[in-house]
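anyone seen this seq b4? input:
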Amino acid sequence: MVAPLPANVGPYPIRGVIGSGAMGMVYLAHDPAIDRPVAIKTIHRRLLETGDDDPSVAARFRVEAKAAGRLTHRNIVPVYQFGEDNDCAYIVMEYVAGRNLRDYIHSPRKLEIPQVLCLMAQLLDGLHYAHERGIVHRDVKPANLLIADDGRLKITDFGIARTESSNLTRGSSVIGSPGYIAPEQYTDREVDRRVDVFSAGVLLYQMLSGATPFAGTDEAIMYKIVYEAHKPLHELMDDPTLAPFDAVLDQALAKDPAQRYPNAMAMRTALLALATGPLPDALPAEIVLPPRLRGTGAKTAAAKERDSPDASRTGATSVPSIPDPATTPLSPSKPQPVTGPPSVPVPTGWDTVALAGVERELAEHVGPVARVLVRRAARGLTSLAAVRQAVAFAIVDFEARERFLAKGGSSTGSGTGNGVGTVATSTTRFQPATSANAAPPGAPMREGDVDRAAAALLSSLGPIGRIVAKRCAAKSETREQFVAHVLEQLTPNIDARRVQAELWRALG
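predicted toks r here
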């Protein structure tokens, strides 16, 4: 049975439902003071009062009102008011008639390059404005970008935005949408405006190709974003003319924030340099998709009048048409935010408690992705010491990595593939290539060495590490030659001793 519409939320008469979710409803309402339609996002009173169980729910809602309420920009949905009544708290914002970017991406009529640049310029302009005022969105994705009926892009849903005075969403959970989150949001490092630059890079890739650069299950997406390079756009599309965009994408999607564009305006400037002609301020009218409309499920008096036989014959309506919640950006976004580490099964035969100990230690350095790394490594190894060595590359800080490895020297527990045995007791510190824990100098290259080396080089070289590994492997017969060739490629600002230790540990 459909719940009846409330007559009012605060002083605003309700006209229909835009969307619904676990936390509350989004209504189409009327602002009687200014005589305009508005959208009202509500949150149930019970959620506001569950401080002990989930304080972040109510807190994030207030952050959204505070964050977006400070922003006045043509490319950001304005927030008019935050209020509370007997049943809920609510945010009153501009009602945008239109469709979200997801509908444009999936439309049979694909966006052309000038139209993509037009939308990206608006997005980056709005993000830069927010960033300069201390607000990072952190969930930039197609469902949170509206294209109004005048062709202008508007950013909405600052529900997980971070303000300079707020640290509400830090901790063990990952908040954001899989496929669009920057690596540092997964690895629990500090975030800044460059996480939105990364998300903008994902959107650029998606608008030009119709596909996201990182796809798969939530677990696979997380691993790819943190550790694997995206496929170049011109290769994916088999179109050499897209190569200039790859240069922009490589920088926007860099794993290391320091290698990304420092701000949204820098990325905007780089993109506009690729335009072959002047760009409009908004999408042209012939490109704009018409709103997808539907009636409400609730029967208000006006709705009953609309549905009367006479009204159906004349097409008259006394109620504004309501956007389809499946397509309007004010409806709950899909996919839903990740609220914790993904569920990764423990490999057969392994002691869950033993692996959990390594996961907890690694999580102190890399965040929730630790579970994925540890359990994936355990699938092909037979001791906890080997698992610890396999996942240590994920720790960026060299000294922290060495301490993590040293702990394995004294730990005991289930260590074989069938869950029986003890862990090796030797510590793992830096040793020359000829040490006992490294492969013999004359050991030949083996299958999988390139992948292991590329993973080890990620923290020092970033995504280009895989390219270096492949090229050096092609001219090496032994592992010793391979390591030597890699070291020859390093620039003076990279610690060669550290890289050598990482490589031998990965290959060992």
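The mean pLDDT is 75. Residues 475 and 482 are 8 Å apart (CA to CA). kinda curious what u guys think
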